[in-house]
Amino acid sequence: xxxxxxxxxxxxxxxxxxxxxxxxxxxxxxxxxxxxxxxxxxxxxxxxxxxxxxxxxxxxxxxxxxxxxxxxxxxxxxxxxxxxxxxxxxxxxxxxxxxxxxxxxxxxxxxxxxxxxxxxxxxxxxxxxxxxxxxxxxxxxxxxxxxxxxxxxxxxxxxxxxxxxxxxxxxxxxxxxxxxxxxxxxxxxxxxxxxxxxxxxxxxxxxxxxxxxxxxxxxxxxxxxxxxxxxxxxxxxxxxxxxxxxxxxxxxxxxxxxxxxxx
Length: 263
Hints:
The structure is a single chain. By secondary structure, the protein is α/β, with parallel strands linked by helices. 57% of the residues lie in helices and 11% in strands. It has a five-stranded parallel beta sheet with strand order 2-3-4-1-5. Strand 3 (166-172), helix 9 (179-192) and strand 4 form a beta-alpha-beta unit.
């Protein structure tokens, strides 16, 4: 390949916006020569490299748009530390059949037991499979709803939260919902019912939702729709955060014999 031809090829790649190929062109051309690839095989390797790069960029962008507070994967979850979690059940959820069928998932358990980790990990898995995902903390949503109410944007907020195929609502029950938020949640659940999936984490059992929503009738209506087609994962066990403190030696230092709390 002459220098002129090489420059022309690179120019064509730039005009076609094949941004990955200029970086791997030389290496693949050399490998093609050694392996005696056909022209079609060489083209196949070039396009595979470009598609892989585009897929990686797409996943990175959609992960940012999902607004996860942090990124975790299922491979990072310590099932041995949390034996109440059925690993086979989580792997079944990771197939994302529940998303394809518009079903819901609810993780229930005490604070720190890995609910948010699992929720985010499933969200990350969904994004890698081309599923649109959005993550919302209930505390942040409460603040946003009151701002939206003042600006007459509640309908717009509802429409935005109905768009993703998987919507993760985190920390249901940590803060009581006022009438505005409870009614908004009812509308959101009703709009997404049998159409798109909700994944909710909560530290409250279903029997306590009437208190959280300050309206047992409304709580019953919401749960009726949420649980109709759903999977509930009850998590019981020690806090992940305490485990990390123990591993770091902080928890041990606080409870070590002979050490007294400072005033």
